[in-house]
Amino acid sequence: MTVPTGRRERKKAATRQKIADAAMRLFMERGYEAVGIREVAAEADVAVTTLFAHFPSKEALVFARDEDFEERLARAVTERAPGAPLLPPLRAEVHALVRHCTAESAVPVWSMINASPALRKYEESMRVRHAERLAAAVAADPEASRTATASRALAQFVVDAYALAREAADPEGAVDEVFRMIEAAWEVTAPREPAA
Q: Model-level pTM?
């Protein structure tokens, strides 16, 4: 997670974490559907308006690290060294997310997500948003030099690699397998030198 620098930012991050922890505690104890927003706010000792200042919806409470992952994917593109290849840092970020989501502690959370149509729908929209942000970062990268379609396809495949790997028997191996295909496809889309 990105570490906030100023006092105000640290306080804001602490409040956000407190709300997310309270929500997850209640969801795990009583079930996602059985818990209301007011109960989460009361458990976190914040006003409902404060809760909504940090999380736009009840579903967002379950995916508290969503923005962090989206930011990390974009930074994997924008903060890599000049001339460095594009795909290795993206692969590393997907590996990190898959390790987080397949940890023993995440099993009850994913069971809750899979049991809730609202959470599954939110997770799908979250992946679309991640892919759009990543595609914009790739398209803006002068070293990538690919079409907008290629940038969007790459972003979609990278984000979907996480979802596929999370459900695989060998998640780490699945990330590597999918990235071998992504690398081959990305190579094919490289601009060709005109024939003499």
A: 0.85
